[in-house]
Amino acid sequence: MIQLKHFTSLLVLLFLVSSCKENQAVKTTVKQDLIIDLNKLDNEIIQFQKLVTENKAPAAIVEQFKKSRLAYKKAEWAIEYFIPETARFMNGPALDEMELEENRSFEPHGFQVMEELIYPEYDSKNKEDLIRELKIFMSNIKQVKSTFEVIAISNDYVLDGIQQNVFRVIALGITGFDSPILQSSIPEAGASLIGIPKALEKINAANTTLPDLKKLTQEAQKYCTENNNFNSFNRAVFITQYLNPISKKIKAFQQEEKIKNVKKSSPLKPTAITLFDKDAFDVNGFVLSEDYNYTTDKAVLGEKLFYDKSLSKNSDRSCATCHHPEKAFTDGLKTNVSLNGSNLMRNTPTLTYASLQNAQFWDMRQLDLEKQSVDVIENTDEMHGSLKNIHAQVLLDAAYIKLFKKAYSKTAKPEAWQIQNAIASYVRSLNAFDSRFDDYIRGRENKLTDQEIEGMNLFMGKAKCATCHFTPLFNGTVPPNYAKTEHEVIGTPKDASGKALSPDTGRYLYNKMPQLIGAFKTPTVRNSAVTGPYMHNGVFKTLEEVVDFYNKGGGKGLGYAVDNQTLPFDALKLNKKEEQALVAFMKTLTDKRYQKN
Fold this sequence. Notes:
Elements: H1 2-26, H2 30-53, H3 58-82, H4 84-91, E1 97-99, E2 104-106, H5 111-118, H6 127-150, H7 155-173, H8 185-194, H9 196-201, H10 210-226, H11 235-257, H12 296-306, H13 369-378, H14 387-395, H15 398-407, H16 416-428, H17 436-441, H18 450-459, E3 487-489, E4 519-521, H19 543-551, H20 554-557, H21 576-587
Antiparallel strand pairs: 1-2, 3-4
Helix pairs in contact: 2-3, 2-6, 3-4, 3-5, 3-7, 3-8, 5-6, 7-8, 7-11, 8-10, 10-11, 12-15, 12-16, 13-16, 18-21, 19-21
């Protein structure tokens, strides 16, 4: 009996030792887990290449493509966060990457290029191109692994990277931005989220928020699995009931662990709890120097300058002449008129949310609002003023001197650059983020109608609007880094007859690259209900006309020769009910100040 007892005790001891060793064996760091995930991705790509090389059935090749993308999604948060330059060529748009400063471009690579080669039906004539893309992709995996092996991944970066990935799912993932043809975005969104608790457990598995966070991510993945149809997926429910709560739990984890925010210059504040916080965005993230940073005193001075007609040559025009505050700082005209009475070439865009872009004017010729203001003031067709003369006037005006001293206390007297900066600061004050949509998405009592919810889901889904007008700025500034504002070639008609393409070459005027012929900045859809007419030339009077144009596939869909069109030219196949719902949703983006209009 004694021997049996000792034998039993020995078995228990061996079991405990074995369990401890096993637990030690599986205990890994965030970095080690990333390397494991990258190896799994590499294996999926190798299998993908094998199927293509052996001329397997198209259905098997497409299925392996989907498996490979799902594997990528598990490591995407870290690849995008730490190595965005490489990520661009792993899962970026299938469009040329352009360096406008140097007038050169790079051909795209990665999943979206492969997607065009295999879908909707794989043709073996694309075999060599597909194998080439797969080899480039494997080379990029090798580069990513090498980078992760040598960099330090601290807890603050893990938190920041994971939170940004939730924002990426909202703004890019569930919209189909990175799966525009296959539309595999919904199951991929679930795959992107499920690893969040696992990464945070490496920091502290005993954190009290982790059980709730784990449950939320599991339920989010389940929701994606059970509702995986791209067109019918309810993004309103997914954001309000899953993604926003996940964001809040991640922030709660950070606060409980007392992990500091990453210090960086970014338009998206590190203090943002969700992507839809009223103060989530920092206009100073778009200025070129700290001297230009926004202050209320600068905005007060800028407002006075904005309405001052003495800024123009004949003292008969101010900035407000073309940017009426009651019309969300537009003028309601197709195009305004020049000083000599002729029509200007382009429509007056809204100044609301203009400060949350990396380029100004329809053709994006200026990088910031400071240069934009002086460009308009000194334009011979618009104000024909002189910054030098205005500066001289300001130095003789006691009221202005007082305001300048308050706004720029470090300088002895007003300087010319401060005039530009003050006007720009006033424009930076025009971002309210208080529309009915904002109230709804933050979980307030204000509800949207069923039609408006349908429109929201169409905007972020079937209608593909949000693949260019990114949520929640609804402009072309690309989330979650917001370091680049995109242009698009959509093939806008010349006039209401729709018989010809607009002759305006847009961005091409400043960068003679064929991809840029007819390229224009993607403006915000916020306040669009009160900022018509629309497009760079004001060709459309109503939002209904705009929706109809996109529904037909843009200029190419209308039969124009727009070989470089970046807008998908296939018809969206929206019915009238869906078109109306889309317009109804866009009207929910009107700030309170303009809702009566």
